[in-house]
Amino acid sequence: MYVCKVIGKIISTVKNEKLVGHSIVLVQAAALNDRGSLEADGPVFAAADTIGCGEGNFVLVTRGSNARYACKCAEAPVDMAVVGILDGGQWGLS
Amino acid sequence: MYVCKVIGKIISTVKNEKLVGHSIVLVQAAALNDRGSLEADGPVFAAADTIGCGEGNFVLVTRGSNARYACKCAEAPVDMAVVGILDGGQWGLS
Amino acid sequence: MYVCKVIGKIISTVKNEKLVGHSIVLVQAAALNDRGSLEADGPVFAAADTIGCGEGNFVLVTRGSNARYACKCAEAPVDMAVVGILDGGQWGLS
Amino acid sequence: MYVCKVIGKIISTVKNEKLVGHSIVLVQAAALNDRGSLEADGPVFAAADTIGCGEGNFVLVTRGSNARYACKCAEAPVDMAVVGILDGGQWGLS
Amino acid sequence: MYVCKVIGKIISTVKNEKLVGHSIVLVQAAALNDRGSLEADGPVFAAADTIGCGEGNFVLVTRGSNARYACKCAEAPVDMAVVGILDGGQWGLS
């Protein structure tokens, strides 16, 4: 899975009808810095939020057909989904 | 999903017969700049337009088998599809 | 889909038996330059040619399981296939 | 498969219920240096550990739907899984 | 497919039981240099060898579920497989 930081919400009124009801968040890929801490430092993506994450959380993001399983919607045109929030106190996370 | 900017239409007369009827747009991957705004700054792709997007729109682009679901054509040789238009007033979008 | 330039043919006599009969071309990912024109400027890939493209053509290349659909061979170990040729007169193409 | 170095464990208490029971590790993509040795030098990912790897191991990481097969859980929202540990004495590994 | 150079064998005694019996090789993605020749110049991967390639060969590597087809093992946790060897006398190959 990608390890990403949640940057904020994405609002998209005009969308494919199978995306209706899915909360979408903007996330940025994380990297490990010289101090062994995770920091947002890479491309941004849009992911469906399946577990209620918040801005600033570091999260696990699954991709491809796996994302549809996470959304419990076999035909959702979703290819990235947040499936876990990293606990604080590890990898430099407060 | 990728977050991309729609650059314009792609015309392809000679194509796989299962692509006939699909409108294809040229999109460019977006990045978050220092001011927290989205801007087109990455590789370009061709995506099937399933919701009627226009040049300059920032859009959600799904990939892989998910794109076939978005196109409502189980055998379309499409691996990227536009599935949402970002509303204005967020992420520096007018 | 990737937008690529066809660089030439690839000959591979020793190959998986399910690749027999598929014409394979070397393609290079395209980018948009400052003048808004497409040019070959990225990694190279090998793709099955499903529509008879030629050296110098700019083409649409689909990936993953979608490529098997394009090849009309459900078990072909092909993960990239050319599915369209861009018309001239757009994106700086002659 | 990606060749990666295991950096350590990832703890994620809040997660998709289908991730419960899967041990998740932080891995970093490896590259081949000038001496022909593997070293951690690339993006980091989170992968399900299906074989009991440890920090410092160089491992094989499979992606996409293949990762679900490795986890023996057809609906696990896992898109990367550790499926092998490289033996020492090759590629500069102690 | 990726075009890669075979760098050598990978030995992995501790592995997922469905990987047993598959020969795994270390490959490096190839690029096209200024002289129009292929050379190893990119990330390294581990791929199942389905056709008996050797060190120094330039090969076609398929990814994702396509790799399982190439391995004739529907549940092999393999996401990259060598499916062809490029003939000599093209692309600067001896």
UniProtKB/TrEMBL annotation, chains A, B, C, D, E:
It is found in: Carboxysome. It comes from Brotocaccenecus cirricatena. This is EutN/CcmL family microcompartment protein. The keyword rRNA-binding does not apply. Keywords: Bacterial microcompartment, Carboxysome. InterPro entries: EutN_CcmL, EutN_CcmL_sf. PROSITE patterns: BMV. It comes from the Bacteria. Gene3D superfamilies: EutN/Ccml (2.40.50.220). Its main location: other. GO terms for cellular component: carboxysome. The keyword Lipid metabolism does not apply.
